[in-house]
Amino acid sequence: MVFSLRGPEEEVASGEAGRSAGLGGLCPGRAICGLLAPPVKKSQKSDVKMSTLVEPAMHTLQIGANGERSRTPSPQNSPRLHNESCNIAPLTPSQSPRNEIRMRQTTPFSVVVAIDFGTTSSGYAFSFASDPEAIHMMRKWEGGDPGVAHQKTPTSLLLTPDGSFHSFGYTARDYYHDLDPDEARDWLYFEKFKMKIHSTSDLTMKTELEAVNGKKVQALQVFAHALHFFKRQALQELKDQCPALPEKDAIRWVITVPAIWKQPAKQFMREAAYLAGLVPSENPEQLLIALEPEAASIYCRKLRLNQLIDLSYKPQANGLMSDLPIDSSFRQAREQLRRSRHSRTFLVESGMGELWSEMQTGDRYIVADCGGGTVDLTVHQIEQPQGTLKELYKASGGPYGAVGVDLAFEKLLCQIFGEDFIATFKAKRPAAWVDLTIAFEARKRTAAPHRANSLNISLPFSFIDFYRKHRGQNVETALKRSSVNLVKWSSQGMLRMSSEAMNELFQPTISQIITHIGDLMKKPEVKGIKFLFLVGGFAESSMLQHAVQSAFSAVCRVIIPQDVGLTILKGAVLFGLDPTIVRVRRSPLTYGVGVLNKFVEGKHPREKLLVKEGKNWCTDIFEKFVSVDQSVALGEVVQRSYCPARMGQRKIIINIYCCGTDDVVYITDPGVRKCGTISLDLDELEEPSSPKKSRREIRASMQFGDTEIKVAAMDVQTSKTVRASIDFLSN
């Protein structure tokens, strides 16, 4: 399948027109929208339910398309935000915003399909709206690694030499592995590519990904191919189970992303889903972006006690253990899960699980999502009796996933065989390199903290042969000459790693995870944690389990769900069935716009002075929509009104700025950056306005309490919806 990307020409043209039409030009190179706060009238209080500081009545100064100035009365108050009573309304990359922002379930969906798009492995699950207690896992994947129980498939994509889709998952990996080495150099193989979206600071629609052979492809195409594969698999399975199910508008799709991802990355996944044909861009509400630790938290609410493994059990007073050792209990749970997987259907509680029924209002817990690429931490508080969740501290984490262990292994190989050789081998024998990483992955899963015997890792014959030809000596000689003492050469043709060597590979990544969880627990907002839920694929590692238990079992109960690698996927299905479960979230950044305020001598710097029509204005004032780590409830809206600078103006462009602190004053302060734009597309008025009604007011409503920032707008004069969109990818 070939995807066609939209060209930027129309965006550039409309963007320039919008900037010249009233929201740029006051300061060269900066977009200033002149929004000043008038007093709040008594009649306005029912519309603006925020704590507010009343300021004197002022007028808005705007610059038109040809430099003409227009003076219009200011819109509603633009107050500062306090506590959780702020009014906040949606900002989405949506093409058709709705007037009713809070009511998200107005469109009936017959089935919810969730895609857990992971760094190392991915999968899908679904549930019918008529039977929400049953979560159906995807069909068993073809292929797989011996001894590894997997209900997901590797996040590996194979494209043909001409860039067309060939296969995904085990099929892609195995086919690429079996290619002739010379032929493999022309094929485009991608693995663990999700991390690129997190690590790219200037992510755009044209960001590229590098295949194993060094060739580059647009990242949006790569992600769209992967999502289209899951769409095709899920639809086929749904049609087999329910032949009468209509494909159009019957499915709500959910895609999981790390909670620490910024808005551009979330929008990127949405755009990839549009390109893959999951949903049309005109129906954005048909696709939800779920935050991975949130999804895990939602699923943990449903678990029974026998579906949880408590790592915090201590010896009783009589010296007897109250439960089995960690490794034993976890292996037993995994075996029980393996036996039950033939059904592929998991039943969840219609109400709260047993653990949740023990919780009191206000009890708080941490969900640590330890995945392949990132570690994502979310702090939630339970709200009884409704069972909704409230986020207590903004999502945190970092690139501390299981991939860090893989990188440490690669670094070890470079230390033994030489960095230049490893780089050459990866370029010349890419399929053999993939084979080597598979062999390491299998051994990595068996690593344990108290393991006594060594681990053998098979080296592909092509590695041994290539090294001999490239260096003129054999692999065993290289090991003897290297400074690495904990890795030996086995007579069976394998690298023999001591348990100490394997522990050293895990240590840097695990130490970062422990440090980050510990730092989070020291925050005042996070004191009194009752539980620490460990979820995600990396949480299956007994190395990580032991480290977390040792560090935190004295502070709180450390809990692991039995099906720890599928927790996020199942929770994403539950989130799709009811997106209102998380009632309050925390803003990860401070967001706002640049405005003009009256210039005050002694308060404002002289370089910010702008004199227009005999009045002194201070430019570049940062007017906040929402502050970093501020509690924002689902459905709360921030409203601002904007006035076109001239009659007949068809587009308004508003620049959005963000920063990681709350003490920002100007959009030029250190740490403040332009992060996105709001576009308001205006229809022509049906009849010319009379002089008394020449002022056209567009009211924009922004929502920060959802998993994505969203925007909607309305023409106050006509009460008609204005097409509004927000873009974080065009900076």
From TrEMBL:
SUPFAM superfamilies: Actin-like ATPase domain. CDD domains: ASKHA_NBD_HSP70_HSPA12B (cd11736). It comes from the Eukaryota. The keyword Secreted does not apply. InterPro entries: ATPase_NBD (IPR043129). The keyword Transport does not apply. Residues 72-98 have a biased composition (Polar residues). Residues 1-20, 60-98 are annotated as: Disordered. Keywords: Stress response. This is Heat shock protein family A (Hsp70) member 12B. It comes from Podarcis lilfordi. The lineage of its organism: Eukaryota, Metazoa, Chordata, Craniata, Vertebrata.
